[in-house]
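Appendix B. One record, verbatim.
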Amino acid sequence: MGGSEVRASEKRSKRNRNGGQSHLNGSSNISSDADSVSTASQSSKKGSRKRKHREESSRSRTTVNGTKVNVSAALSTRRPSLTQPARDPRDFTTKPTKRPRVDADAGADAHGHADADADADTDANNGKLTRSLSPYIDFDGLSRPSRGTRERLEETDEQKAERQKKIEGAVRTILECVGEDVERPGILDTPRRYAEAMLFFTEGYQQNVRDVVNGAIFEEGHSEMVIVKGIDIFSLCEHHLVPFTGKMHIAYIPKNQVIGISKLPRIAEMFSRRFQIQERLTKEVANAIMEILKPQGVAVVMESSHLCMVMRGVQKTTATTITSCVLGCFERKSKTRNEFLSLVGLKN
């Protein structure tokens, strides 16, 4: 009996030792599992942050012509454009020169205002006014000054009569070419009448903005929107020399100065009395007002019907064309732009 009890006791102590060891092993296994779970969680968080960063980067970048562009950076640095009027390179007769330094005594009057003639150059040889140094304002007017425009602007009465005779001869040739009898009573005086009418239709080539505005710019504390709407516009399409007619709406927000309200329709008429396309006409009017008045912003909208696609071509009699040009705060702020469109009846 004594020997069996000793063996039983040894077995129990052995079992106890094995149980303790297995308990320790289990604890260590649990600890290692917790460590691995924690490591995996941290790796997962790092991976998710990297994926999120890559997604944001991909969203903020786009590809233009094979080049990656940072959209967010481009939008944050975008500035409103003051687009230059469309100019035919063939119209440039002189190369642009640098603005000369204006003497303080000669360039300002007794009230401290800059001389109005400071925007024009003076030819040292003959003393005549020549091309302005401004990118927009020219002695001949605004936009597309040309040699022919200058000649017409400065012509004498004899030269004017010679110009009209040349037009009359060209019209007579056209009448003959279309099959008319140029000697019949109804047509006999048509070349003269047409020449006079064409010179009237295009008298904008004989005007410049300085004479049109005529100093009607005044200091005033007004800083709210000024609108002149429903200005009748008549012009000639430069592609077919047939009319397009419509309405123009002009708005500006003054900064320090206001312009006589009649000058806005006069500026529009000056540019319309040239061979035009509607898109360029809209931009020229907006850029002219922006340049001479320096307001917070300018908006111009025009709606017109073009006889070149009513009488010929697609012959759509009810189609109208709407063009717009917005500068300054009208371009930057959609609320200001929408207010203008609502006030002129183009937005509900």
